[in-house]
Amino acid sequence: MKILILILVLGLASCGRETKKKSSEVRQDVSAIYAASTVKVQVFYEPGAEPYTDGPLNLKYWSILEQNLEALFQGSSPSKTIKVPKALSEMSAMSAFNKTSWKIEDVLEMSKGVPTAGSSDAATFSVFFVKGSYSENPKVIGFHITNTKLMVVFKDVIKSVPDQTSFGSKYLEQATIIHELGHALGLVNNGLPMKSAHHDSEHGAHCDNPKCVMYYTNEGTSNMLAFLAQVLQSSSTVMFDANCLQDSQSYTGSGK
Ligand SMILES: [Zn+2]
Ligand SMILES: [Zn+2]
């Protein structure tokens, strides 16, 4: 485990959390998501940018995302069915883009060309795995586009983790998706009302707890190290802290 964590620190300068505009400037409305009874994630990938799916001992990496979504909606009303694909066969291949640099507009444009990506279902989220990197910062791993259900992950950045045989890159990939879905669901204080004060408003829509996946982590800092170390040492794979979980679990979308 120590080796894995060291690799993360050496190999990654950023855990890339970007949105189209500063989250504090764009107020999201997530009430329709929370009113839905099914929350679904669909995954699209460019050839060569396939998500990690199967680990040793029958481990399914996407179960980590599923467990985090189940935690966010635990006890929520109405109760939710969570649908997360686990195997590559449950995800959709796209055509090759072979772009080296992506702008936010490019991601929006791409999504229009992918059937079902722009699902009108209130709580169907689309995660795109592509090659290349973000035009504004090539170290960004992924981002959610504010006020949409669209997220992109830059697989080349994930692959820049030196040791691809370790769990580090797999956890990082899951942590990135979990973080971006957190934003899409209105965390922190960006669509989801806070039950207690935990908004790190200086850093956009992020949590003030370094032990939470919604914490804002700068490039090259030890924050990600400390965070993933804690996740790996705990018996739970839930990466949200109690404050973020509480905001989501208690929100009914009807202002209550
Ligand atoms: Zn973020
Ligand atoms: Zn939090």
Proportion of strand residues: 5-15%
- Mean pLDDT comes to 83
Q: Please give the alpha-carbon distance between the first and last residues.
A: 43 Å
The helix tally amounts to 8
The profile of the biggest β sheet is: 7 strands, mixed
Order of helices and strands: HEHEHEEEHEEEEHHEEHH
Name the overall outline: globular
Report the helical percentage: 25-40%
* Radius of gyration based on Cα positions: 17 Å
- Give the uncertain stretches in residue-range form: 1-24, 218-222
* Small molecules held by this entry: zinc ion
Number of strands: 11
Helix/strand/pairing category: alpha/beta
Can you summarize this structure?
This protein has helices spanning 2-11, 31-35, 62-72, 104-112, 155-159, 168-184, 223-233, 242-250; strands spanning 17-18, 38-45, 81-83, 92-93, 101-102, 124-130, 133-134, 142-144, 150-154, 199-200, 206-207. With 256 residues, it is of the alpha/beta class.
Characterization of this structure:
It is a single chain. This protein is of the alpha/beta class and 256 residues long. It has eight helices and eleven strands. Strand 8 and strand 9 form a beta hairpin. Helix 1 runs antiparallel to helix 7 (223-233) and helix 3 packs parallel to helix 6. The termini are far apart. The relative contact order is 0.22. It binds zinc ion (ZN) (2 copies). One zinc ion binds next to helix 6. Residues 198, 207, 209, 212, 214, 240-241, 243-244 line the site of one zinc ion.
